Every structure is written in structure tokens, then in C-alpha cells.
Amino acid sequence: MFIKDYISDVYNAVTSLLKGMRTTGGYFIRPKEIITQQYPDNRAQMKLPERFRGEVVMSHDENNEHACTGCTACELACPNATIKIVTKFDTTPEGKKKKALDTFVYHLELCTMCNLCVEACPTSAIKMAQTFEHSVYDRNQLLKKLNNPGSKLRAGVE
Amino acid sequence: MFSLEYITDSIQHWLYSTFNPTMALLLECLIIILLVTAFFGVLGLVLVLMERKVAARMQIRLGPNRVGPKGMLQTTADTIKLMMKEGLTPDGADKFLFNLAPFIVMIAAMLVLAPIAFAKGFQIWDINIGVLYVSAVSSVSVIGILMAGWASNNKYSLLGAMRSGAQIVSYELSAGLSIISIVVLSGSLQISEIIASQQTGWWLFRGHIPVIIAFVIFIIAVTAETNRAPFDLAEAESELTAGFHTEYSGMKFALFFLAEYINIFIVCAIGATLFLGGWMPLHIGHWKGFNHIMDYIPSSVWFLGKTFFLIFLIMWFRWTFPRLRVDQLLSLEWKYLLPISMFNLLLVTLIAIMGWHF
């Protein structure tokens, strides 16, 4: 019984080691699978993963309209106070006052790209962009206003 | 046809006809010293680059590719950097032993080079106990490693050196037993005769399964003896920072680093000599035409090809297997490799006595 266990031990060890060597040897003979990106050289054709999180942006359509209602859900979700929503009151055609977005202030220098604001947004107004070359000489340049000047809420978004 | 034997013979003839014998011998020694030193330098550069490239390919990376064409000069740049660096000796260290240790490791590596046949008739010293000499002298390097660990006056260094000692002492046994199985088959300890005995085929193919088992055990044991992953407990960078050479810097560190790669080359050269026929071309039995074509490839190419194949195999191990724990390392040797190689040696002896090999 002992001899049987001993031999099966040796057999299992050898086969599992060979399995590992097959994997690495396979990578060795297939250089096409190399995933290294030579970044500054291939800036033009660089491919980032789909879920790469570079910075928060607000998407605007061709009429310069966004989907942000100014609900501040993102501001509440943000763990380190990166987002500050400034609201204003618009007057609707019926004469009622309605809360709307004035300025979406985004402190890129505080952002950890945790994606919680994007998940919290009920109207999918903000999303994560793929840009990542953020370095500047003055930190004031990292303070961004995400809504374009003159933009307004898209009709039908509540 | 290109032959190193012809070049060495003509140089020797010229030296002995121009100078008196003592002078000629001294000059020959000088030439060998120069050649060996140059060979070590080149080997260090090539092997480190090869290791980094192989590692990169196996981990789906590119590896060094900026210095020189395709990163070829990366190791040269690293060597120049190491030469420029200050060789620091710690205050609490035993200064004499601390500075002596890298040279002992290096000299041990240099000495083992003596009986290795690089090509047909291209051998520094063809002693009649070549294999015994190799296995004896290669263990000297453990003294250097222990010396480095002890003299550093650092707990990590000492732990690394102790592990290295335990490891080399244990794995020497199974490496020795697998070497002996080839000595039994070829009936000689002399390297040139072992190679000559493989005229009709390499021992790996002629000796049936027992020799293949001996070869596998030999490769495992020498991987452990050269302190390489998966047996790199002596360095164990995640546990002991750098093991026995934690306190070394600059050129003294470079000597340890170089000695590691030289040792890999040497053990692979020994493996190639014993199991794959050294410089002997691939001969299959009595196929005259095939054997004749194989003879046209220079013997040095055969030797280096086989050696680099084995080096690649050991690098492949390093970048595939995880490191063993100390107790796993010792139980692998004493519970598995040693009993198997002892039993295997009996089988090989039986084959040799009965003449069952091809």
C-alpha cells in the first residue's frame, strides 16, 4: 500500500509539473500573445482594456444636451469628495421652479477612479473615459467643470 | 572543416619550437587564463540576457529591448553600472572573509572548467578522474557561500547561507549517484573516454529507461546545487531579501551573480557530456550516411548546442515552478530522489553487467 502511494505521488508530481511546463513553454513558442504595450511609442494605436478607468466625463449629445438632473447622487456616493454639484432653479413653462444642474465640479486630483459615482448615477449622465495622460504643472488645471458651457438637460430625462 | 583541435595543436607546436619548454608552458597557461576569463565575461553577459529574454517570453512580456539592437547590450550596460558602483563592506562584517568569499565562489567555478571538453581535442586538462574532480571541486563553492553568509554578520545572510549549505550537501548525493550510473556504463572517469564511449549513440538513448531517470534526477539535483528556482531558498528574495549576498554590492555582488551563471553553464556542460555525448555528433547505430552528415557539423557547435539546450531547460524550470519550502526541499531529496536514484543505480549496473544497452 505504501509503495503504491509512493509511486502515485511521484507520478502525480511529474505530470502536474509537466502540465505547468507546457503552459509556459506554450507562451514561449507563441510570441504573438505578448501583452506588453510599448506605451510612448504606440500612442496612436494603443489599445486599452474596455473597463479601463481614466477620468470621469459627462457625455453631451449633438444639441449640447446632457442627462444630469443635478440629483447629487454622485456627490453623495463619492468617498473622498471629488465631486461638487452646484444647482440652480430653472423656471418651467408652467411657471414652476425646478432644480437643475448649474456646474458639475470634478476634482481630478482627488479622484481614485473607484467608479462609484458612475454606478450611483440614475440617468447615466457620467461615465469613465479612457484618457490617462493627466499630468500638468499646476494642480488648479486638474479642477474640471464637466458640463459644457451653455448645455442643458436633455428633454425627457427625469 | 573548422576545427579547434587544429588551431590548438598548431599554437602548441609553434610555442614549443620557439621557446624552451618551461617558457612555452608558462605562455600556454597565460593563454588559457586569458581565454577562460574572456569566456567567463562573455558567458555571463550572454546567459543573463538569455535568462531575461526567456523569462519575458514565458511571462508574456517583451523583456529588455531598449539598449542596443533588441536589447542585446542591456547586460553590458548593467555590468558597467556594477563596475562603477562602490563595493561597500559593512562595519560589523568580518572584513577579510567578507572580501574573500566572492573570490572563492568564483575560483571554484573556474576550477571546474578544467576537465570540460568544449570540442574534439579542445580541453584544458584531460585528467583520468575528470568526473570525480568535477563533483569534488564543485562543492567548494558552498564554502564560499557559507563564508559570505557568516562574514556578513546579518541574520538574513546567515539563514540563506545555512539553507544553501543544507541544500548542496543533500543534493550532491543524488547528483553524484546519477553521475556514477553513467560512469558504470562507460567504465571510465575520464571525460574524453566517456565521450568516446558514446560514439554509436548518446547514453540517454542507449541506456533505456534507467538512464532517462538518472538524467531527470541529475537535472533536478543540479538545479538545486546551483541554487536556482524552484530551489532558490538560499536567495529567497521574498523571505530573506537576497540571502547570502544581501550585504554585497558593486563588483563583489557581480562576482556572485556571475558565478551563479557560470555554475549553471558548467553543470549543464557536465550533463551534456555525460548524457548527451558532449561534442559527439548525433550518431544513430550503423546508419553510415546519416552519421557522416552529422560529422560535418563542427564538434564545438554540437557541444554548445547541447549545453544551451540544457540551460534553457533549467531556465524553463525557473520560470514555471514555485519555490519549495525548506522541509519540502529536504524531503524531496531524502525521501524521493535519493531512494529512487539508489535503486536506479542498481538497475543501471545490472544493464551494464548483462550488456543490455545498445
UniProtKB/TrEMBL annotation, chain A:
Occurrences of domain 4Fe-4S ferredoxin-type (ranges): 59-88, 102-131
Keywords for the protein's UniProt record, in alphabetical order: 4Fe-4S, Cell membrane, Iron, Iron-sulfur, Membrane, Metal-binding, NAD, Quinone, Repeat, Translocase, Ubiquinone
UniProt keyword RNA-binding present: no
Organism: Niastella vici
InterPro entries associated with the record: 4Fe4S_Fe-S-bd, 4Fe4S_Fe_S_CS, NADH_quinone_OxRdtase_chainI
Protein name stated in the entry: NADH dehydrogenase
GO CC annotation: membrane
Pfam families: Fer4_7 (PF12838)
PROSITE patterns documented for this protein: 4FE4S_FER_1, 4FE4S_FER_2
GO function terms (MF aspect): 4 iron, 4 sulfur cluster binding; metal ion binding; oxidoreductase activity, acting on NAD(P)H; quinone binding
From TrEMBL, chain B:
Domain of life: Bacteria
Transmembrane segments: 23-49, 96-118, 130-150, 171-191, 203-224, 253-276, 296-316, 336-356
PROSITE patterns registered for this protein in UniProt: COMPLEX1_ND1_2
Membrane topology: Multi-pass membrane protein
Gene Ontology MF annotations: NADH dehydrogenase activity; oxidoreductase activity, acting on NAD(P)H, quinone or similar compound as acceptor; quinone binding
Pfam families per the UniProt record, alphabetical: NADHdh
PANTHER family: NADH DEHYDROGENASE SUBUNIT 1, NADH-UBIQUINONE OXIDOREDUCTASE CHAIN 1
Family that this chain belongs to: Belongs to the complex I subunit 1 family.
HAMAP family the UniProt entry points to: NDH1_NuoH (MF_01350)
Job of this protein: NDH-1 shuttles electrons from NADH, via FMN and iron-sulfur (Fe-S) centers, to quinones in the respiratory chain. The immediate electron acceptor for the enzyme in this species is believed to be ubiquinone. Couples the redox reaction to proton translocation (for every two electrons transferred, four hydrogen ions are translocated across the cytoplasmic membrane), and thus conserves the redox energy in a proton gradient. This subunit may bind ubiquinone.
Name used for this protein in its record: NADH-quinone oxidoreductase subunit H
Lineage: Bacteria, Pseudomonadati, Bacteroidota, Chitinophagia, Chitinophagales
